[in-house]
Amino acid sequence: MQIAGPLRVRLQLLGWLALIIATGLVWRKADLGLPFFFWKYGGSALWGAMVFVIVRIVKPYAPIKTTLAASALIAIAVEISRLYETPALDEFRLTLAGQLLLGRIFSLWNLVAYAVGIAGAAGTLKFAGTIRLSRTGRSSVE
Predict the structure, then answer these.
(1) Where in the chain are the domains?
(2) Whether the model pTM is above 0.90
(3) Which of 22, 29, 93, 115 gives 98 a disulfide partner, CB atoms 3.0 to 4.6 angstroms apart?
(4) 3-state secondary structure 26-92
(5) pLDDT at 90
(6) What phi and psi, each to the nearest 5 degrees, are found at residue 133?
(7) Higher-confidence position of 81 and 122
């Protein structure tokens, strides 16, 4: 049985998402001996890539510029949310889930890393054939 259309693309994207999440967990939690810069910002780039893929799963046929913009806005919103502190939110940020999903400390450098991850994910998915651009600039998945 052949799976076609949006379901096929979403399944491909779920595979990419699983790969990115697994890589991110190993990157951050295993002792890989990476220099701090690569450990910190490589993990942030993977987080940005994860956001891009999630947005793509939700709207697989959206124009690529829309996916890029939505991913960037989500990343910016999450980073800015780090400036807001409440006891419950601060407590959550100390958990593993809170650290991985929201982070703890605001940094403009994280925004750069997120942008690298978002652009890298878009380029990788285009190269892998999961995203194709039509002549009109709208993305296609077939």
Answers:
(1) 5-140
(2) no
(3) 93
(4) HHHHCCCCCCHHHHHHHHHHHHHHHHHHHHHHHCCCCCHHHHHHHHHHHHHHHHHHCCCCCHHHHHH
(5) 84
(6) -105, 135
(7) 122
